[in-house]
Design goal:
This protein is an alpha/beta fold. The chain has eleven helices and 16 strands.
Length: about 325
């Protein structure tokens, strides 16, 4: 499951990571560390390189200037959207953690698995602050590698959810995900549905994780009090909802990069549907209480995430320190 590369460097593979990490633990860790770490960690703008007409290489560095978080980290990510047609993950990644004191390599972590956890937990954490406490139905738009993690994180963040409806362009993938997750959560039912507008109308929480460049969620279909979670887009051409959804929603972002990389927000601003001030705040401001999330039960809230090297570093910290301190028999 895990092996030692040398006397000082740990290799933490996907199986080891799953054995030591839970969605609730990671969400709690991020909620407690993000407010202080946001001012103590430097995260240069990620490098994004087009390696083919449809594929990309991303480099995400981050380093702490605080003695209480003595780490440097770099994530290398490849994005190959055509992989979905051959049943391979679209995203592959590796994360390297260094000591900021000595510069030595501390760990090489399966970045693909870590990214799935950290992305889902950021969405779950936002839902804690933005979705209604009495939310019952979760709609999952997309049935790729990210979907089961988002479902688990949302169910962990909002225990009132008792029904999950999954939609995917290829319905057989939605059916397969339902079969995989049925019975995993006591008291939660799972089903698939091929009519997206119909299921969006039902969703108290609607979570999207697709590579779509055409709007999927129509704003007119969002029910009163819904929370919309947008995960998929990270470049201008991508979008998972239309302008009407953005216009109707009280919008929060994970970090300022969303205003550079999110197709939904950039497009709506460029077309004059919203102005920059329509973005209420970011996740750290929500956690601190600097910004009010949901003002009433009828309001539509939106959370757009594009990922950040800061969250990667905090996730790697938890994984590394937990793994290093765990008894060998528990790994």
């Amino acid at each position: 499951m895990a092996s030692t590369v040398n006397h000082d460097t740990l290799f933490i593979d996907a199986a080891a990571l799953r054995s030591i990490l839970s969605y609730k633990t990671l969400m709690n860790h991020l909620e407690s560390t993000l407010p202080t770490a946001s001012s103590a960690v430097e995260s240069p703008i990620r490098h994004s390189h087009q390696t083919s007409p449809s594929s990309s290489l991303l480099l995400m560095p981050s380093f702490s200037v605080s003695s209480s978080l003595p780490y440097i980290g770099v994530k290398l990510v490849t994005f190959h959207p055509c992989n979905s047609s051959i049943y391979l993950p679209v995203i592959h990644a590796n994360y390297t953690l260094f000591s900021s004191v000595t510069g030595q390599t501390l760990a090489s972590i399966d970045g693909s698995e870590m990214t799935l956890y950290r992305t889902a937990c950021i969405s779950g954490l936002a839902s804690r602050h933005l979705s209604r406490q009495e939310s019952r139905i979760l709609v999952m738009v997309g049935a790729g590698a990210m979907a089961p993690h988002l479902i688990r994180a949302h169910l962990s963040a909002r225990p009132s959810l008792n029904k999950v409806i999954i939609w995917n362009r290829r319905n057989e993938k939605a059916v397969a995900l339902v079969e995989m997750m049925e019975g995993e959560f006591q008291g939660v039912s799972f089903e698939s549905n091929g009519c997206l507008d119909e299921v969006v109308r039902l969703g108290d929480v609607v979570s999207c994780a697709t590579n779509s460049e055409v709007a999927l969620v129509m704003g007119k279909e969002l029910k009163s009090g819904a929370h919309l979670d947008l995960v998929g887009s990270f470049k201008h051409s991508m979008k998972e909802c239309d302008d009407e959804a953005i216009r109707r929603g009280r919008v929060f972002i994970d970090n300022e990069a969303a205003l550079i990389e999110s197709g939904e927000l950039l497009g709506a601003i460029e077309r004059g549907v919203i102005c920059r001030d329509h973005i209420v705040g970011n996740l750290v401001e929500l956690i601190r209480g600097d910004k009010v999330g949901r003002k009433d039960s009828s309001q539509i809230t939106i959370f757009k995430s594009v990922g950040s090297a800061l969250v990667d570093l905090l996730c790697a910290q938890l994984v590394y320190e937990t793994y290093k301190n765990a008894p060998p028999s528990s790994i």
